[in-house]
Amino acid sequence: MSFASRRCVMRGRMLVFLLVALRILWQDFLMKQVLENCRLYGIVDMGYTEPEQVVARTHALIDGGVRIIQLRAKGKALPLVKAWAVDMQAICRERGAIFVLNDYPEMAAEIGADAVHVGQDGGSLADVRKIVGAGVLVGRSTHSLEQAIQAKLEGADYIGFGPLYPTGTKPGRPSIGLSDIAAAQEAAGDMPLFCIGGINGTTLPQVIQAGARRVVIVSWLLQQADIALTAKAVIAELERA
Ligand code: TZP
Questions:
Q1: Three-class SS of residue 205?
Q2: Are 108 and 115 in contact, with CB atoms under 8 Å apart?
Q3: Do the Cβ atoms of 165 and 148 come closer than 8 Å?
Q4: Domain boundaries 38-240, CATH class
Q5: How many Å apart are CA 163 and CA 211, to the nearest integer?
Q6: Bridge partner list, 2
């Protein structure tokens, strides 16, 4: 190959590399914007969802204005989790929402998930980031003010904070109450903090009153006859506060 054509190939490769890098940066910017503006985080929890409802519920949440949607499939067979995750990721990508896979960083990397969410037992966030790679958001569950501060120091993209109230969705996990919400919110700074655990139409006003700006609602939302309408009302209530 002549020197001129080798130079041409090199330039082509550099251009491709640059375009890929720009695309990752742009995608990252867009996702951070969505995360920043998100008030209600939805979870398609397979403890409350039949497999044939996964697609419709993902659409219903997005119809209701939810822009971050997690698949939570505790104890389900991995091939099933992967199939649901692939479906949800495709819907979220097409409709401008962030898809979050709970618990499985390797699978998140494999299917190209927008984000992965890990618990306190999910290892260091640096290790999770090594698995999922650049441009994938990483969220962490926290159950105390100290854990919220630690997650911020570790560079979490967002945190869940709770359970505020006892909840059957996370049996055995003691509730932490509302008293630390404001301090955790303050410590979180610009890292989005989502209050979680036992939030429903009755408890939401108290949670907002205690300083919450963003929430995750699982069972109550999934059990509504009209998920989209309920999500819209919750978002409106959070935005009014
Ligand atoms: N993490 C803390 S509480 C909780 C999780 C996943 C479950 C919240 O579910 P619900 O049904 O909204 O109480």
A1: helix
A2: yes
A3: no
A4: alpha beta
A5: 15
A6: none
Domain ranges of the chain: 1-37, 38-240
Contacts of 101 (CB under 8 A, 6+ apart): 70, 71, 85, 107, 108, 111, 113, 115, 116, 117
The reported pLDDT for the residue numbered 22 is 87
Identify the residue whose C-alpha is closest to ligand 1 atom 8: 197
For residue 27 and ligand 1, the question of a CB distance below 6 A is answered with no
CA distance 240 to 54: 30
Atom of ligand 1 nearest to the CA of 162: 2
Closest by Cα among 36, 235, 206, 31 to 135? 31
Query: Could you give the CA distance from residue 164 to residue 176 in angstroms, rounded to a whole number?
Result: 5
Q: Probe ligand 1: pick from 165, 202, 214, 216, max atoms within 8 Å of CB?
A: 216
pLDDT at 36: 94
pLDDT tens by residue, 5-64: 888 888 989 998 898 888 888 888 889 999 999 999 999 999 999 999 999 999 999 999
CA 9 – CA 23 distance, rounded (Å)? 21
N- to C-terminal Cα separation, the chain = 67
Kindly report the number of other CB atoms within 10 A of residue 135's CB atom: 14
* Per-residue confidence (pLDDT) for residue 2, from 0 to 100: 84
